[in-house]
Write a structure and sequence with these properties.
This is NAD-dependent epimerase/dehydratase domain-containing protein. With 84 residues, this protein is mostly helical. The protein has a domain at 13-34 and 59-83. 40% of the residues lie in helices and 0% in strands. The chain is built from 4 helices and no strands. It has helices at residues 20-28, 51-57, 65-78, 80-83.
């Protein structure tokens, strides 16, 4: 990137917008016995869209949100013996 674009911080996002509740509910699909306590957010959601940068660089995510969560949970469970 530094050879093609001016130096500076870049935040490459997927363009997906999920709030905390959506993410927690998706993760809980893998742990049906859990019942987390609801905690009201202290700050409003902060959403940053990076679609301009994604289109400029022709960048697209390789994984869907659901596939990324599924993969993360599977990796987490593969190390279950380390945290139980």
């Amino acid at each position: 990137l530094s050879l093609l674009h001016p130096p500076g911080p870049y935040n490459i996002a997927t363009g997906w917008v999920y709030n905390q509740r959506d993410i927690v509910l998706k993760v809980l699909e893998h742990f049906p016995s859990l019942s987390p306590k609801h905690v009201r957010a202290k700050l409003p959601p902060q959403i940053q869209k990076e679609t301009m940068k994604m289109s400029r660089w022709n960048w697209k995510p390789e994984w869907s949100f659901d596939d990324a969560i599924d993969y993360t949970i599977a990796r987490f469970e593969s190390y279950k013996e380390d945290w139980e």
